[in-house]
Amino acid sequence: MPWTKGDYPPSYKNQPKYLREKAVEIANEVLKESGDEGIAIATGLKKAREYFKDHPKEKKKTAAK
Description:
This protein has a domain at 35-65. By secondary structure, the protein is mainly alpha-helical. Helix 2 crosses helix 3. Helices cover 69% and strands 0% of the residues. The termini are far apart. The chain has three helices and no strands.
């Protein structure tokens, strides 16, 4: 089941909005490829953290929306 900005995995609940939205985007792509929600959830969060570590300016742009 794909996730949205308002309907995301419970484990994303306490994440900052910018991180949660990116994680949902990534997790949905992983879900399409693997079909495994557990892997998609974990990978989405991990890759979103890596993304913002490598692109700190994006965090500020996303947070401003």
